[in-house]
Amino acid sequence: MLGSLTAIWISIMLLMVLIMTFAIGSVVSTLSSGSTPVKISDNSILTIELNGNIEERVVTPDIYDMINERPQPTALENILNAIKAAEDDESIIGIYLQCKGAAAGLATREAIRDALAAFKERGKWIVAYGDSYTQGDYYVASVADEIYLNPVGAVELKGLASGIPFFKGFLDKAGIEMQVIKVGTFKSAVEPYIMTGMSEANRLQTSVFLDNMWKRMADEIASSRGIKVDSLNILADSMLVMTPAENLVDLKVVDGLKYTNEMSDYLKKQSLTNAKKSIPLVSVGDYLGSGAKVPHEKSEKKKIAVYYAAGDITESEKGGIASDRVVPDIIKLAEDDDIDGLVLRVNSGGGSAFASEQIWHALEVLKSKDKPFYVSMGDYAASGGYYISCGADKIYAQPLTLTGSIGIFGMIPCVKELLNNKLGINFDFVSTNANSSGPNIMEPMTPFQRQRLQQEVDRGYELFTSRCAEGRGISQDSIKAIAEGRVWDGMTAKKIGLVDELGSLEDAIADLADENGFTKYQVISYPDAKASFWDVILEFNTQMRVNSLKKELGIWYPAYEEMKRLDRLSPVQARMETVLFE
Fold first, then answer.
1. Is residue 392's pLDDT more than 60?
2. CATH second-level architecture of 302-530+570-581?
3. Contact status, residue 493 vs residue 386, Cβ threshold 8 Å
């Protein structure tokens, strides 16, 4: 009987493994090969959904989200390519923008809005619809020819605010002291661990870049909607989201009120579709999979590599910008005779100073091969993100990009109180030399150890500012005058010389080609965005673990995740704090 029960359980386990493997394999096969190409009929409408997370690129799918039919992250790269391809595609007559509450950075939204504006310039129409509009979605939608809202919906328009979580109270209760060494008055990334609110310097820099960014957004919305900026700000101050939908038409915030079925009838008229037939709507994925011609994608002659560097800069982490993966990739591009130029797409608030230096050096190797090197900045290219950008021949930023934050800090936690007083654990050391056991997290730093770490941070700051000075072709003193860890919006960064041009990734690519005489060129994206079978398996395993932890820890999971992140940080960081826009 025991043998039979064992055999049954083994069979069940094997069956579950086989089913899971088959399911994941099917997902990978679908992602790799794509579905059957969709035929694009005449008078088709490209549909862009602002829904879920919008990321630079999407490599590995979230299996749990796919099973539960939750929105998958959308690749900004795909959205922009689809809009660009549709500009000259005679089968696409317009764009239907469905606003469902996307999560995206302001520069990401600006890039989509700019691409839509370029689409309109080709004489084609854009219509936006939402049951309700978040402020970010409305900013994108405001470029549309017509904006429609559900009759019982709302529009959020309230200006910008920045929220920063502070962990000092939690750390104090846990018995953990964060020992911080930094350079730069405005280097505020350490503040959440040693303060309970913003410093005056951080409040000043945040206020300045928020005011600049909101002015940019308000000017663009007002211009598109035919509203005075002063009037728009009055609306923002009046909690517009509480305004009855019918009043929003009179205020020129939207053009009309329609239910979903009424939008369907409207789109049928726009596409000249018979009332009994379905609307020829085509999604971004289906459109790109149909063989839509993205400009320069299949051109011959010169080849421009676009390398996507998004996330935290680390030395060897699985995700983000890990120097042990990025450096070999850049060196390969440098040595590849078929690659004639590089555009580095940066979307990072920084990370390890050591890893940033390694990536900077690899890019210098590429430059030594007489290959042009441009940078395109996304939502963030700050601290370490600016470090890896500063050596470029030309730097492009969106007006709503956050950049700069040229500064260094070191941070070592001390858990002595937690271990001794909270958990009853004591450590004792026997050492051969004065600092054999330190610095370590079990004991506070001695004055000598703190002095030595300060010297290391100071050296890192000198190196960082010297790299920036060399790359920008100005004196190190001039760099230091605008450094000090201060964060700048893209518009101000151009004025003070941290970036060369305000523009998109497409602008950077086009200018690199034009300024280097590439009349025909092909754009190749790196690293490979296709997920392998093992990538999906490993990601699935990670998702299972994370979901289990979230259920187990509940409201404590964010604190756990933050402590785990701190544990992985290298001692010396070139990083800006996370800015949460509301």
1. yes
2. Alpha-Beta Complex (3.90)
3. no
